[in-house]
């Protein structure tokens, strides 16, 4: 029977494939339909259980959890009792206006947030009784064998049992900018962060390349996405500073009102005035001291703030939350897609002659090459490097509209195609000029991709991949004087350049070619062309925003699931790091709550962290 009911889930990434099937009582040909139906009854549908929907009545009732509103309601009753009809109507209208306006804003926000829940995949291809069948994603159960193909949204957490060049975009879950290459071998380390469990796939992520199969180990709220949803649903909402201050004002006014009543009554009794008359006079004076318009003014001000935030594409769930922006002392930001564009961009080209920088970011093919801080034109070597890189890539750019570009294909390959365009090389024209006639696809074992192209009667092979792999297959390198032997010192120079680029958080690929090649010898005796360094660049507006926060006395921290080296490089580039203090999820795990409470004031970058770590950091800052 699957062991999925425990609080601490099994470390599936450490299990062998045989052990996983055994523990889940499943087999490679999939579950029988009858067994799948039984498990669906046992574990429930594969869907996130949303927190109980907030009813309209509850939203309305929340508007009365305000001391001032309660005092005004009392004032309304007292005014009516004293026969002050105009005052009664006026106060009642003000209270009604404040309550209705607050209700409308918050009710609309609740419904808008419900409309954002779009994480579940509609259907999934599984193996049942040895046959591939499409089923609704909600009917997926532990032990099912999922079939994964490029473009699929993963419907549940699964341990991979086959992987053929499988790559998965996990940015939504881990913050990893680059698609993760997947394998099937068990991992020895138990406490790996999600981004390092490369023999697993997780619900809500997207298959970008290749194919594979995985046996489902968790569904619904037991998935990693489900655990995040559960954590968010259990977070307690505190009172905002404005709510606290208004409650304090209300209590002071209530105490003052009672004091006025007591003073007037006592003074009247000393003068032998009628008790009832003095009581009514005291209450009237107390009601007059209450600022009836204050709740309405506060509600209107907050509503205006909400509307302004909506125009800036920010959805505010509760009116008082707008005011907390003015009380902010620390902002915790994700990296991928927030501080960065989530679009891989080539930053540096390195050939035998020089290393040039490329400006621009994202998929828009505009930018300049520079060397030693001076603008330069692409040299013949750099054009050869980018031509080879574009030809050995399958990605291509599409102009969706004027000034807007979309990438079709792998982001890493797309970055090379965009860099080639910046050097004046068009991918479509290159494909027409050098048509591809064969290829050796990328695999996680070979760590390279090679294509064969026709050039008249000749054949040219182009390859890209891990620098150490490409370098090992090269015997020559291209220089401005032509091809020369690639000796030991040249190899060391290339590896040193790779290390230097990696220290700047650049993902490095090497590119090579071979003339007069055949598919059998295409990856032997190649000519080394150079290195391409790329990164998910920071947004142009991110640095200005951080500077503005610092001027306002607001500290900004980065909390990301991405690699520490990448996180720190981006943080330095946008001016986020000042003390240089950064910690990883593993280091954070080792900290006690007391130690974290002290160190949280100094740490500026949290890298390779899980969603639970993020919540822990925010809680420590709030405390």
Biggest sheet record: 11 strands, mixed
Structural class: alpha+beta
Count the E strands: 24
Our count of helices gives 21
Mass-distribution shape? elongated
Output the radius of gyration. 32 Å
- Helical content stands at 40-55%
Low-confidence stretches: 1-8, 116-121
**N- to C-terminal separation?**
42 Å
How much beta, percentage-wise?
15-25%
Summed over residues and divided by their number, the pLDDT gives a mean of 84
Explained architecture:
With 623 residues, this protein is of the alpha+beta class. The protein is 40% helix and 22% strand. The strands form four sheets. Strands 9, 10, 11, 12, 15, 16, 17, 18, 19, 20 and 21 form an eleven-stranded mixed β-sheet that branches. β1 (123-128) and β2 form a beta hairpin. α5 (85-114) runs parallel beside α10 and α12 runs antiparallel to α13 (411-422). The longest helix is centred in the N-terminal third of the chain and has 30 residues, at 85-114.
Q: Which secondary structure elements does this structure contain, and how are they paired or packed?
A:
Elements: H1 17-23, H2 33-43, H3 56-62, H4 67-81, H5 85-114, E1 123-128, E2 131-136, E3 145-149, E4 157-169, H6 171-174, E5 180-181, E6 200-201, E7 206-218, H7 224-233, H8 241-270, H9 275-289, H10 294-311, H11 321-324, E8 330-333, E9 345-350, E10 355-358, E11 369-371, E12 374-376, H12 380-391, E13 396-401, E14 404-408, H13 411-422, H14 427-433, E15 436-440, E16 448-455, E17 458-465, H15 467-472, E18 474-479, E19 482-485, H16 488-503, E20 507-515, E21 526-535, H17 540-551, E22 555-559, H18 564-573, E23 582-584, H19 585-590, H20 593-599, E24 605-607, H21 611-622
Parallel strand pairs: 8-22, 18-21, 22-24, 23-24
Antiparallel strand pairs: 1-2, 1-3, 3-7, 4-5, 4-6, 4-7, 9-10, 9-21, 10-11, 11-12, 13-14, 15-16, 16-17, 17-20, 18-19, 20-21
């Amino acid at each position: 029977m699957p062991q999925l009911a425990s609080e601490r889930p099994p470390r599936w990434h450490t299990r062998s494939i045989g052990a996983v099937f055994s523990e889940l009582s499943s087999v490679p040909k999939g579950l029988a339909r009858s067994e799948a139906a039984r498990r669906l009854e046992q574990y429930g549908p594969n869907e996130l259980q949303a927190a109980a929907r907030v009813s309209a009545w509850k939203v309305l009732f929340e508007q009365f959890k305000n001391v001032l509103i309660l005092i005004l309601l009392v004032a309304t009753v007292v005014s009516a009792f004293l026969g002050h009809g105009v005052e009664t109507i006026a106060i009642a209208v003000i209270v009604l206006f404040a309550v209705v306006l607050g209700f409308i804003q918050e009710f609309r926000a609740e419904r808008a947030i419900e409309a954002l829940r779009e994480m579940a995949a509609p259907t999934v291809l599984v193996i049942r009784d040895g046959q591939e069948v499409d089923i609704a994603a909600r009917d997926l159960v532990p032990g099912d064998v999922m079939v994964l193909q490029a473009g699929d949204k993963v419907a549940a957490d699964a341990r991979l049992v086959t992987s053929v060049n499988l790559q998965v975009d996990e940015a939504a879950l881990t913050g990893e900018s680059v698609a993760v290459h997947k394998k099937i071998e068990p991992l020895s380390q138990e406490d790996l962060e999600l981004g390092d469990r490369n023999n697993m796939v997780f619900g809500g992520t997207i298959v970008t390349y290749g194919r594979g199969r995985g046996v489902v180990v968790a569904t619904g709220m037991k998935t990693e996405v489900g655990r995040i949803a559960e954590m968010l649903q259990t977070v307690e909402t505190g009172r905002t500073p404005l709510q606290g201050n208004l409650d304090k004002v209300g209590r002071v006014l209530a105490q003052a009102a009672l004091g006025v009543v007591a003073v007037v009554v006592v003074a009247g009794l000393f003068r032998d005035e009628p008790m009832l008359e003095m009581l009514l006079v005291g209450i009237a004076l107390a009601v007059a001291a209450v600022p009836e318009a204050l709740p309405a003014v506060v509600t209107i001000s907050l509503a205006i703030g909400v509307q302004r935030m909506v125009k800036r594409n920010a959805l505010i769930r509760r009116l008082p939350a707008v005011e907390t922006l003015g009380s902010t002392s620390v902002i915790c930001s994700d990296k991928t897609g927030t501080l960065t564009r989530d679009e891989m961009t080539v930053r540096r080209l390195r050939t035998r002659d020089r290393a040039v920088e490329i400006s621009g970011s994202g998929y828009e093919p505009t930018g300049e090459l520079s060397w030693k801080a001076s603008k330069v034109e692409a040299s013949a070597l750099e054009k050869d490097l980018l031509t080879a890189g574009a030809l050995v890539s399958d990605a291509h750019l599409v102009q969706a509209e004027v000034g807007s570009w979309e990438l079709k294909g792998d982001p890493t390959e797309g970055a090379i195609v965009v860099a080639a365009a910046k050097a004046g090389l068009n991918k479509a024209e290159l494909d027409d000029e050098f048509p591809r006639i064969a290829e050796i696809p990328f695999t996680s074992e070979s760590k390279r991709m090679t294509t064969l192209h026709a050039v008249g009667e000749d054949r040219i092979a182009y390859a890209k991949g891990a620098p150490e792999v490409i370098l090992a297959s090269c015997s020559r390198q291209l220089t401005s004087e032509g091809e020369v032997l690639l000796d030991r010192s040249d190899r060391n120079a290339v590896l040193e350049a790779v290390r230097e680029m990696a220290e700047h958080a650049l993902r490095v690929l090497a590119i090579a070619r071979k003339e007069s090649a055949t598919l059998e010898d295409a990856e032997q005796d190649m000519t080394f062309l150079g290195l391409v360094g790329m990164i998910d660049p920071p947004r142009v507006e991110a640095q200005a925003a951080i500077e503005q926060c610092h001027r306002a006395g607001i500290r900004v921290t980065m909390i990301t699931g991405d690699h520490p080296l990448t996180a720190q490089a981006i943080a330095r580039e946008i001016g986020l790091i000042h003390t240089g203090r950064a910690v990883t999820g593993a280091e954070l795990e080792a900290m006690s709550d007391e130690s974290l409470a002290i160190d949280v004031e100094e740490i500026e970058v949290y890298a390779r962290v899980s969603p639970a770590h993020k919540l822990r950091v925010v809680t420590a800052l709030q405390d």
